[in-house]
Amino acid sequence: MTLDLPKKLLQDLSEFILSHTGLYFPEKKWRALNKGIKSAAHELGIETNIFANQLLATTPTKKIVDTLTGYLTIGETYFLRDKNLFQILGDQIIRGLIQRPSKKNNIINIWSAGCSSGEEPYSIAILIDQLFPQLNGWNITILGTDINPDSIKKAKKGIYTQWSFRETPKKIIDKYFTQTADNNFEIVPHIKTRVKFSQINLMEKDYVLHPAIAGAVDVILCRNVLMYFNDQNRNIAIKNLTKFLTEDGWLITSPAESGFIKAPELSSVKFPNAIFHRKGMPRKEDRTTSVSGTGIKSSAKKIKPDYPKKSIAPRKTKPLSRRMTDLPPSDKLDYDIYLTAVRDYERGAYAQTVEKLSNLLSDEINNNAFLMKTDSMVLLSKSYANLGKVEKAGYWCEKAIDSEKLNPEIYYLQSTIFQAAGDIKASIRSLKQALYLDPEFIMAHFTLGLLLQQKNKLYESRKSMTNALSLLKVRDPDEILTFSDGMTVGLLIDTISGIIKN
Ligand SMILES: C[S@@+](CC[C@H](N)C(=O)[O-])C[C@H]1O[C@@H](n2cnc3c(N)ncnc32)[C@H](O)[C@@H]1O
Question: CA nearest 173: which of 156, 189, 186, 157?
Answer without folding.
Answer: 186
